[in-house]
Specification:
The chain is α+β, with helices and mostly antiparallel strands and about 170 residues long. Helix content is about 55%, strand content about 20%. The chain is globular.
Length: about 170
């Protein structure tokens, strides 16, 4: 019964919030800010998952080094047959390369090695930039992030702090 209740809750949150979450994420809001704006109560963990998945789906964050080649997005669609029998069909979508500039980020590894030290290096950033890094589930492997103003500020803060520590 708990499994069903959990699945139902996740479905309701997904249905009620996904479009709003993706729209707000595209506007540059952090996970914390998005949670504050949602009308339907949604756990922060679910919003984090939705935002991370949205960034991966849109190519804002990539788990593999970007290339000029189109990338493949694989999804599955449930279909019902003539007699009500359900089956899953794989749908492969070719997404053209965007031409965006990307920066390689090792935030997950750095947070894992020294979480407090990593966030101390980001203390001079605006609150929204710090929340952006703190809220997302950065993996230990490197990711490639679209170079935008926010990422430039974050990378600059990390480089400035490194230079001061080296002196």
């Amino acid at each position: 019964m708990k499994t069903f209740q959990s699945a139902l809750t996740n479905f309701m949150n997904d249905f009620a919030s996904r479009d709003a979450v993706c729209h707000l994420a595209d506007q540059g809001l952090t996970v914390t800010e998005i949670c504050g704006k949602l009308q339907f109560p949604t756990k922060k963990e679910l919003v984090t998952e939705m935002v991370w998945k949205h960034y991966l789906d849109t190519g804002r964050i990539r788990l593999e080094e970007p290339t000029d080649k189109p990338r493949r997005k694989v999804t599955y669609v449930r279909e019902q047959g003539l007699y009500g029998r359900s089956s899953m069909r794989q749908v492969v979508e070719e997404i053209p390369a965007t031409g965006d500039a990307y920066a390689e980020c090792h935030f997950g590894r750095e947070i894992y090695k020294d979480k407090d030290g990593f966030f101390r290096r980001l203390e001079g950033l605006p609150k929204e930039d710090l929340e952006y890094v703190r809220d997302l589930p950065w993996p230990l492997e490197p990711v490639w992030h679209v170079k935008d103003e926010r990422l430039e500020r974050i990378l600059q803060a990390l480089d400035i702090k490194r230079e001061k520590n080296a002196e």
